[in-house]
Structures
1.
Amino acid sequence: MAEVSIRDVRKAFGATQILHGVNVEVADGEFVILVGPSGCGKSTLLRMIAGLENISSGDISIGGRVVNNVAPKERDIAMVFQNYALYPHMTVRENMAFSLILAKAPKAVLEQKVGRAADILGLTQLLDRYPRQLSGGQRQRVAMGRAIVRDPQVFLFDEPLSNLDAKLRVQMRGEIKDLHQRLRTTTVYVTHDQIEAMTMADKIVVMQGGNVEQIGAPLDLYDRPANLFVAGFIGSPAMNFLKGRIQGGAFRVGDMLLPLGSTRGVAEGMPVVYGIRPEHWRLDDGGIPATVRLVEPTGSETQVVAEFAGHRVVCAFRERVTARPGEILCITPDPACVHLFDDATGMRLA
Amino acid sequence: MSELASPAPISTKDVPQVMAWDSRARRAVTIYVPLACFLLILLFPFYWMTITTFKPNGELLDYTHTNPFWINSPTLDNIRKLLFETEYPRWLTTTMGVAFGATAISLVASVLAAYAIQRLRFRGSKYVGLAIYLAYLVPPSILFIPLAEVVYSFGLFDSPWALVLTYPTFLIPFCTWLLIGYFKSIPYELEECALIDGASRLQILRRITLPLAVPGLISAGIFAFTLSWNEFIYALAFISSSENKTVPVAILTELVQGDVYQWGALMAGALLGSLPVAIFYSFFVEYYVSSLTGAVKE
Amino acid sequence: MSAHADPTLWVRSRSKPSALAKLFDNKTFLIFICLAPALGLLLVFLTYPLGLGIYLSFTDTQLGKPGVWVGLENFQYLLTDRVFLNTVWNTIFYTAAATAAKFALGLWLALLLNENVPLKSLLRAIILLPWITPTVLSAIAFGWIYDPQFSIISYVFKHLGLISTNFDFLGTPWHARWSLVVANTWRGIPFVAISLLAGLQTISPSLYEAAMLDGASGWQRFRRVTVPLLMPILAVVLTFSVLFTFADFQLVYAITRGGPINSTHLMATLAFQRGIPGAALGEGAAIAVSMIPFLVIATLFSYFAVGNRKWQQGSDDDV
């Protein structure tokens, strides 16, 4: 096992710059997720770690060894691809054993390693099937089995769950996390799904437009997003943003005043963006009167889209709300959970 | 932790149903009658070829006493003549040899070229692909005169090798084009995964790409084989001695003596000359059709 | 248990790859090796002869006798040669008539096959037969069907009382030309039909269902959905068909040899007749070379006129 360190890595395809100097440290045994919208450069970065893309500048090292000029097969990594990349003309057993066959491993080793991986993943019954005969979840597991067999220093996952249906995705999410807890292999995992990132990662790297926006533990990102992008990207339904000014220790939007928890770092009259997560609104008879536009009960909570001062906000209440569209609902934000961002730079203020 | 593999979904699109409002009679007139006419016209020459082959000469030229569409006293005479009184067996083996040789050369060259163009991706690979495609648009009939000079200067005139080496000029472009399409359909990730698994480029080609391109290889091979078998103008221009001729050329040039056409023998020759390629084709129809249509769609 | 047999003790060896394997991992070398056979063969037996042919057309080379540079003399002579001019005209006629017939009938056949008919794949296989049999051999069969005395077609028509004397299929120039067009069409229909059928099958049935719900009649569905979506494939098939019909050789050589009185010669058969049996390689090459501009124009026309629609631009990400 090994740590991975990415130092000031840049990537350009011709004139287009894909990555603008990325720095990420992955500790030994850590599960790190690169997350961001499509085209943010996360997959490119992963492929550079794997050695499938050249590094334009900067260094990537695995286990203390700079691997910029090392061929993929000598990096001691294993990768799970989005479409699984199972060799369709080989059985599950042959798929898993392929790397060992290429390395001319003795038959006993082969049997033992494939057997162990199949055992871990519950694939023992399926070893003689071909990929075509497997379901999506089983293929996913074979792809992981192939990675496990290699006993690599680092696992790389490239959006491995995006081809699965919603229910299976939740199940496999749990399995991958469970697997990591058992094997404790350093893992770098790419996804565009922030829920995957939140639920699985030890550490999340949020990327956008070839830059790292923030690195941190899932709940840190959730509780203290460094900028508007991260605040809006992490969390579902997304955080509400209101544009306005600071006035008398409170936030003014239109002719409404909203409470602030702390005013550290903000000056009177400053233009700011006020961020509040849906679940941090409370029903409060003394709160802001807002017109209900849409009510979406999910069973465990009720999401309400409400409008005040020309702004629409999403609120999520634990209690059942029976309001109908057009009615007035009085709501108030929890001041302790308010995020303030600089309107000009988008950076976090308090 | 195990869910069963889901069975292949049954698609209703495969078997479009006849809708209730579409009347039977209408379909018969607008579809089955024209279709039957097409079949009749497309197949009639083969029927005529066959029936002529087995007719004795007397019946062949007498439409007044016998029905020309049927044979009263079938005979193998024409076939016997073709097999034992001409060099047909020799022509057949020559044609086989030339077709297999040209196909083998073309397949090897095309697989490598298609792999380089589609998988190795280098600067200008698009233009190499385009150049090979353009080569396909050069018809043999504008090349055979200078090619005769080239063949002559290589000392290959009147040798089957002249054909084995020149046929690839129209086979390689087609096969390369077809195989590029096949390679395109193999996901890149498979090769990347093999690269991480520790395979070298050659191992990837041999263990991953080629096995997956087998249907494409078969299609290209069949197509090349039938094209070689049917080729005419080069074989006519580069071969002069009877024993080195290919079947199509030999039947036209060796069986027509003077102005009197021995139609019975000629039809026997046409039938036996078409039969090998038709049999070969029937084994691989699906591949043939897919290569024909695949190449057009590319 | 010996140490050797203990699987846990095995470690992946980082053995040095052999020099050969290393060489083949070098991309430049690999590209070179892969392209060499194909490009080599094409250069020697296609590009070089193409250039040589153009050169020969400016010389008076005879078979087995090197010639000298004569400039445009061959072409000047051809422009005054009635047989050549007639041949050019006949080649254009042959190409236009046969292509039109092949496409009209081929499209019809494709549409018929695209209906829900039983034994579709068997039908498809049978229909391709004219295309896969050697052209010369089917041409000989046509020669027999066109026989002045024993033509089966004449027999049928006479039997039905429609004519009293035999058709003279190959005896007069116009009869011979049309007879050749029919034979060429017979051979070409399968290719057009099967290719267009493949194109038809890529059109999603839901488009027809949508059009039907939009109130389109059968003809309107064909005109507004089928035809536009078939255009790209039609362009390719048309290019090939025009090209190979224009450069046809076998059919004419086998059925009429250019007769009667040189009226059915195609440029390819005339080039052969003058160049190989006639031994005038230079002149033959000049005739062959004069086909090139026609081929280029035909290719460009069918490609740009029919292909390349606006909506085709942009990428299909779902592929």
2.
Amino acid sequence: MDQEQVWLEEARQGDKAAFGFLIEAYQTPVYNLAYRMLNNSGEAEEAAQEAFIRAYTRLQTYNPDHKFSTWMLSITSNYCIDLIRKRRALLLSIDEPLPAHPALMSEKAKGPEGQMVLSQQQEMVQSLLQELPDEYRETVVLRYWYELSYEEIAEMMDTTVSAIKSRLFRARKRLAETGIARGMVPELQEAAV
Amino acid sequence: MEHDNVYALMMDALDGELADYGRNELESHLRACPACMQEWGALQVVHNLFVQTPALSPAADFAQRTLARLPNQKQHVWTIAAIYISLLLTGTLPMLLGVWVVSTLGPALRQPALVRGVTQSLEKVLQVAGTVLSAIFSGVGEFVVQQPAVIGWLLVMVGVVSLWGGVFQHVLAPQLQRQSQTM
């Protein structure tokens, strides 16, 4: 039994400290997914916390045959989709300027130039992601940041592999069109695949 | 070649799953089609941007704060058990009590004299209640006719209280809330 399985077993018995190790191990992937989906650091942190709380209270339903990370990301992504729907129901304006991610302002970035480049890169990624419908955005994030296979994404989103391929296909097409519209495309070059 | 077919080849290329034959086919199409070449350029730019952008981490104390919010599972189980047992008891006990009452007092309740006595008592209670209610209604009616000014003042007071309640709720309470948030 590996360390993760030990923590899971202890957490199932109500050991919060054991679950704390799991939180530390998965906080970045869970938070990153929430932030990419919600595009707001405060909401992303709240969503990530809620996802961990839900996982803790539903540990009895976790099937150890599947990867814990996949189960955790599935809970996070479902919660974020619910949150986005509620947000739409409240008719909040999406034009409001959203706060920049705190990490972009931290000293972790390498100097002021590096920080600026990273900040611009993150902003560009977020603005492109916001062009996509929720389900496409979810697929793109899971594919790019978690390197999940089409089968794993399909299982997480409770759909078929062909549906996921189709979503990624359309999402990339839309992103390319947005890229062209924003002048992100380099000059015509020699065809190199 | 159909543009959708070209796009499918581009997707495979981005996923690193394009065979040599497909690669040659895509390259020759791109050389001949500037529109597809432009889209391929955009796809690559976006793909590389996403691949090179690192995952974001939460604040340093995220794990501690999340841990502090976790519910106490054992206490939770005991609470649910207590609620379940109390619901069970509140439903079961009256039922058992009813069965005991019916089984022990059943024969006595079937006596004709007892039934007649209970009926007569109920009739008298209803008569008394009717008399009291009619006295109250007639008294209130006479008061309204004789003292209209008092009733008017009462209505004015109710109006003032309602108006103040509305003003407080919609105007003063939000201001107080904003002040407390800024402090």
